[in-house]
Every structure is written in C-alpha cells, then in structure tokens.
Specification:
- GO terms for molecular function: serine-type endopeptidase activity.
- Keywords: Hydrolase.
- The protein is mainly beta and 497 residues long.
- The protein folds into two domains: 370 residues, 7 Propeller (Methylamine Dehydrogenase, Chain H), CATH 2.130.10; 108 residues, Rossmann fold (3-Layer(aba) Sandwich).
- The two termini are 25 Å apart.
C-alpha cells in the first residue's frame, strides 16, 4: 500500500468498537436462488443488540429485510421446498439484562402466547403461527412444509416454584435448586393449517425429556428425531449428549447415542440420510485422567451407531463445516493464527487446503443446486488505517517448544524498533488469538496499537490451533507453563529491539 493511500484511510477510533457489525448466520435456500443472513448491530437506545434478518436474491442482486427483531439464539430455517422461512422473534423484555442469562430466560420470559413466524417468499408476508405459552428452545422441519417439531420448556414450572427466590440467606442454594427444576423439555409436533396460517397450530406431544434440548434434527429414512441435551450449569459433561427419539414408537424412551463427555453441536444430516455429522469439543473428564481436545468433526452411522472422526489428518481446531451436494464437505479450520477453508471429497478421503486470503473464514454455507459457496471473512487488512500485524515466533527455552502469537504495530510503524510494549493475553485458555478484525470489548489489540503500542498477543500452551498435545501440556501447570511461554516471547522481543 502506498503512503498516499494509507494517509487517506480513516484512523480506527473507539467509536468503531461500539458500532461494529457481525454476521452470526448465513444459509442458502434449497434451490440456491437466495441467501439468508443475519446481522448483529449494537442498539444503544434499547441497551441491546439489533438482530436483523436479511434475504438476498442472488440473480437480481437485491436484499430485503425480513425482520429487525430476530430471536437472539434460535436460528431461522428454510422449509424443505424453500418457499418458507421459519423463525422466532425476540420477545424478552428490555429490562431483563440485569439477571443471569438462564434465570432471565425463565423468570422474565413473557407469560403470553408464543408464535413461530413463517416468511413467504411468494408474498413477502411474515405470518404468525400460534404455538402456546411455553418457552421455545429449538425446532426443525420434517420432510414437509406443513408441520414442525418444536422443543419447549414449560413456563408454569417457574410460576409454581418461585416463592423463595428472594430469600437472601439461602439465595445461592435456592437459585441452584430453581435452575435444576427448569431443566426439562417437551417436544411437540406442530401441524400448520395450510388453508389459514393465522389459525392456532395443532400441537401434539411427542415426548417429555428430563433435560433441556439444544438442537433438533429430523431423520426421514428412519422417522426419528435427533436431539442434543444441554445445561447452563456445567457440573458434569455427561449432561451434554446426543439422543434419538423414534417417532413410530413414541412410548419408548429416548436412546442415548453418545457417551463421550464432550460438547456436541452442529448436527447435520449427510446427503444420503444415513449419517449425522456433528462437532465435538472435550473439556475435561470425570472418568479419565485428561481428554481435553480441540474441536473435532465426527460422523455417526445411524444404522449401527458407529462413530468415525472426520478430517483426522487436520491437527488444528475446527470452527464450522458445510456439506456439498456430492456428499463431500467444507471445513473451516484454525491452524496457528489463520482460519482457512479445507475440503473432503467424501467422508473417507484426504483433506485438501484451499489457499485463500490470509485471515479468518468465520462461517460457510454451500448451495445444494450449484455448489456456490458463501462465507464470512475477516482480516486486519481492511479499508481502515489499521495497525499492520504479523505472526511472531519464539521458543520456550525450557523445553524448546515453538510458540507464536500476533504482533501488532502502530499504523505507519511496521517493523519499527523501540516501541512501548503491551502484552494482551487471551482467555479460555483455549481461545487462541487469530488474524481477524473484530473491534469489540475482547479483541482490542488494533485499538491499542493505533494509540502507539506494540501489542503482542501470545498463543501460549493451551491455545487452540496447534494440536491436542499443545493443549494437553497445560495439564497440572495452568499458570507456570503459559507464564514461561509468554515471558520468553517478551525476552525475544527485547533481544530483537
């Protein structure tokens, strides 16, 4: 970049850190003609974030806002034929932000009729479908546009067991017991009246389960529902598992499909409908000495229950994945400070790196019709006059382990010596610092560098993106080993001037 071009770029200020936009969700329509995506923008007047859902017509290159009040956590879904988009709106009261997230969900959720909304591509109407007063947790379409499966938790529980919530002496104990009462879900089949979508939907109970449901996925070939169990209180990782419910025999108990003490998420069905893919992250164990790993991708055979690890040759952290129409998949994987796109032509083939721009590919979706790819990308090399950064490496001289991190120089001072140093240490400890631009409360290294600091973000032992051993080395030395990793980096910077 020439010096004249650099001078015309605006300087990063604190204002940008309070006005940034993120893209939490993107998804192609089944026919590949539309792209659905979400933007999240700070809304200072409401002391909240504005979650906007957009639909983009690819052929006409035209975008339309569906709603400015999208639900914060339940993602929208295309119907099987692509003519409808099912979504929830945010119904939490504005004054609910002063309580913990789970208590806010239960105690402050409006005791009113709830609706799932259907957006019509043919009329651009957003139609409310009444579903009762229970709090929605997750939903999925089956193989028809006229019904849905919905997981909820019952608000009446909170009303019947809320008398002692203000007892100061036993506040923590009561709140704990109260939270445990909430941890149950009901799964319903919602049948929509195709002649009048405004009529209340017919709701029939499928199953009550003694845990909260995180995700739902319908399996057409076996007429089953796959569900993930979750809990806001991580007391035991055995709470987080995958179950199946046979819709042809709803009297039988849910069948537990995993038993690995890991956090499972991102359930997606293979193109032939015989396997379910999911992401898994291990965070300790009550049965084993140590099993912390980076996020991995697995495939489960729904016929015999066999679980196979995909992308076994990849030694980094898997962020996200998407299936293509040929049965292969794309993976977003972090190695070091970069998150790049990889592909597997089949579930058993080798992994292929698709070298792209330096930076971070944060989300990916693939069209079933033409294999178009849409992704969210971020890097420090944007239109602002940002600090220039590079990957910086050094050795821990105790065990000769190579360590690296990101080094941010003030604008116009790349590779300049004798700068004041700020060491910005990431948390986690698994959340390694990566090459992306996200000017929020947590990732403020570019802002500090803009003010004249040389900022080092060290990816010490325990950081993701460097293999499972790099994480497991942290065991029994959570302070001393990362501390030595970081201090040797500072020593190396001093020697380098």
């Amino acid at each position: 970049v020439s010096s004249s071009t650099t001078q015309t770029k605006p300087k990063l200020t604190l204002d940008e850190c309070f006005e940034y936009t993120t893209f939490p969700f993107i998804r192609f329509s089944p026919d590949g003609q539309y792209l659905l995506y979400q933007t999240k923008i700070p809304s200072w007047n409401s002391n909240d974030f504005e979650n906007i859902l957009w639909i983009y017509n690819i052929k006409q290159q035209h975008k339309t806002i569906i709603t400015r009040n999208l639900h914060k956590s339940i993602k929208p879904q295309w119907s099987p034929n692509g003519q409808w988009i099912a979504l929830f709106l945010n119904k939490l009261p504005a004054n609910s932000s002063d309580q913990n997230q789970y208590q806010r969900l239960m105690n402050n959720y409006p005791q009113i009729e709830q609706y799932i909304y259907l957006y019509s591509l043919s009329t651009n109407d957003l139609l409310p479908v009444q579903i009762g007063k229970d709090i929605p947790l997750a939903f999925t379409w089956p193989n028809t546009d006229l019904s849905l499966y919905l997981a909820t938790t019952n608000t009446q529980i909170t009303m019947d067991n809320n008398s002692d919530m203000n007892n100061e002496e036993w506040k923590d104990v009561i709140q704990y017991r109260q939270n445990k009462i909430y941890e149950q879900s009901s799964i319903y089949r919602i049948v929509i009246d195709e002649h009048n979508y405004l009529l209340p939907a017919k709701r029939s109970l499928v199953k009550n389960v003694p845990f909260l449901v995180g995700e739902l996925l319908f399996v057409p070939l076996q007429s089953k529902l796959l569900i993930t169990s979750v809990s806001p209180l991580i007391e035991s990782l055995e709470v987080f598992e995958i179950y199946s419910i046979d819709l042809r025999d709803i009297v039988s108990l849910p069948v537990r499909l995993t038993d690995d003490e890991s956090l499972e998420s991102g359930l997606r069905l293979s193109k032939d409908g015989t396997h379910v893919l999911f992401l898994s992250r291990s965070l300790g164990s009550g049965r084993k000495e140590f099993n912390d790993t980076q996020a991995r991708l697995y495939s489960m055979n729904l016929i015999d229950g066999q679980i196979t690890r995909l992308a076994q040759s990849f030694h980094g952290d898997i962020y996200d994945y998407a299936l293509n129409s040929y049965g292969g998949l794309y993976i977003l994987g972090q190695l070091g400070t970069e998150v790049q796109i990889y592909s597997q032509e089949s579930l058993s083939s080798d992994l292929i790196l698709h070298s792209g721009w330096n930076g971070t590919y944060e989300s990916i979706t693939v069209s079933n019709q033409n294999n178009f790819i849409a992704f969210i990308y971020s890097s420090t090399q944007i239109q602002w006059n940002l600090p220039q950064s590079k990957t910086y490496q050094w050795k821990n001289e105790d065990d000769h382990q190579m360590i690296e991190g990101l080094l941010h120089y003030p604008p116009g001072k790349f590779q300049v010596k004798n700068l004041p140093l700020l060491v910005l240490i990431h948390g986690g400890p698994y959340l390694g610092s990566i090459n992306r631009f996200l000017p929020d409360w947590y990732s403020w290294a570019p802002l500090a560098a803009t003010e004249g600091w040389l900022v080092l973000e060290p990816n010490y032992r325990g950081s993701s993106g460097y293999g499972d051993k790099f994480i497991s080395d942290l065991r029994y030395r959570p302070l001393s080993l990362p501390g030595r990793d970081i201090l040797y980096g500072v020593d190396q910077l001093i020697r380098d001037g």
